Amino acid sequence: MKPAAPSATITATTATPFQAVFGLSFDAVLVLDRDGIVVDANPAAVRLLGRRRATIVGRPVARLLRESDASVLPAPGTRSRRPITFLQSRGGTVECDVAVSEDIDGAGRVLIARDASELLSKGLALEASELELSEINRALDASAIVAMTDRRGQILFVNDKFCKISKYSEAELIGQDHRIINSGHHSKEFFREMWQTILSGKIWRDDIRNRAKDGSFYWVDTTIVPSLDGNGEPFRFVAIRYDISGRKAYEEELIRSEERFARAFDGSPHPMAITQLHSGTFINVNDCFLQLVGATREEVIGKNSGDIGIWTEPEMRSEYVTRLKAEGSIQNYETRLRNRQGVIRTVLASAEVIDVGGEQCILTAMVDLTEKKRLEAQFLRAQRMESIGTLAGGIAHDLNNVLSPILMSIQLLQTRTADASSLELLETLEASAQRGSEMVNQVLTFARGASGERLVLQPKHIVKEAVKILRDTLPKSIEISQSIGSDLWTVRGDPTQLYQILMNLSVNARDAMPHGGRLIVSAANVTVDENYSRMNIDSRPGRFVSISVEDTGVGIPENIIGKIFDPFFTTKEQGKGTGIGLSTVIGIVKGHEGFINVYSEPGRGTTFRVYIPAADVAIKSTAVRDEPLPRGTGERILVVDDESPVRDVTRRTLEEYGYAVETAALTGCFGRLPSFSPGQYVTHDERVGARATQGPGIARLAGRAGFHADHRVGSRRRERSPDPQGCRRKLPRVARGHRRGRIIDPLRELYHPRRFGRPAVCRAHG
To answer: Which of 116, 195, 298, 445 is most solvent-facing, going by the fewest CB within 10 Å?
Structure first.
């Protein structure tokens, strides 16, 4: 560190060596300012003049002399030719030899007075002078690194401390050029300025980095004082140095630390800011903070948080600062900030009080939680939707239990009623109940979710089912129409996912028509040629089934149409859209190796056109059999179901067609069932199979009764009863349903037992 600039006057504290000489000198020493006013007096001067120091300091030196001697004070840099008389207290006088120094940097002079009467001879004066010099040298040797050079820079003298720090011996240094310890750290201009200063007779001060004999470096605080001859020309130089290597190492480490902090601060991926504790004024911020608040550096630095309005609740800043003052730091303080565009961001802030240039400041680091919070909310919504789907599945199953006996009862009544008016009413009841059943089945299918299984399917059935449920769920202000080609190609895909595409696009269209409009769902065969493929980067040549969803809504602005498929991008208000609907659509489309195009015009509507590759496999049509339902000849059938109305109506239906029926409830039925003989048939709800894994099970029950069973339980493990005759033929499934044909028709394959060798037990499907 460079020493401070000299003050306007010289004092005894100007330098450590001078202070030692000033206090210990046998001569009276008076420090004078430029106007000759005494600014300091050493103890010897107090004794010589017989005055208190307070009566000496502040007085012109001329008033301390006899009037006739005031005009003969020696000129600066000279000694008096004869003794000069000083006035003592109480009228006494003392004659002294006087010497006056040159002006020291324009700050004043030093007057040295020696009592002439005390010097017995010149030899005694010389002895005293040598003694003083010896004391000064001893003091310097104990506290400083001292060296003396001539005008050419050759070393004339070094003390022990110089040898110790430079690791050279005295013999190796005397007569050498001072550049023997030059480290090469400083520039030529640095040394040129030093030589210009000392050759002009002025004192030079600065920090120098030197190199020791072993190649190590050390820093010294250096003061070089020129020695002047009678003509005022410097003829040698005394350099007084102090080892500051430790301080320099600390300063350099501090600089490196500050540089590391600056790099970490500026390069942090999280918003960081330094603000004044008392005012909140921003001193420094990094780029991430500027992105968070949506402002430029010029708009932030020098302003406080109130000026840029980032706190959504200003009182939270007061709470924040109060905690910081009390605790010194804050960890994981969650709050909300508003950027310059008015967007609210949720952040997790950690802060600490630090010292910057002697002023208390706050260093704050933040983590932007906005996206995390949004994802958490979307995850919770997805969980709620999953729960709703599960609930809807359960409700749909129970509604099936309600509708099944109604529909089957209507069909029984139709066979027993001849009245035309009654039959018409029954047909109306059947149509309404059947419509409700279809709606329930649609909900149940959707609630079960996608299995990911790719099947060859006819897309027109999916489109028609989707249109049905849209007509029941969308507002009546939206007119829904469909245009489906009669000869659509088949596609290979997941039916639930394709259904989800239609539902997501239709819901999007509904939101674009808040005041009503028209929704058109269409499907057609399309052949993509090379020219079209080159114009659409996602497409490829080939046969596709095109499914379109067109609305007459508000349309999509041109500046955002390229972002609509980005995950979580939405133009809807907070809480009214997740931004994942269209991203889900494009994910499904690409998963099916298809592509999607969007056509939109603001104010005139939007069309989403999805292209799914056509499959090369055709679906075999199944001819509808007009054969009458098979009638039984007294075969006994066990019906197991958990719903009493379903059991009762199923029994009545089977009895109507000539079968003997036994019914059993699920709970506790397995221990009280009647024995069966060959030729009997068991039907049950598929949920019974899953529950029966905790008890004997339908398969075990059938085995005890002598039946062959091919029954799949909930764990997908196949259970088989003993079959000594080795019969392992796959049997048809008997479905529990709303129409009697679903129950009676499968019995056609079991009507003649000789076809399979022995009767069997088959599972039913709800």
So the answer is: 298
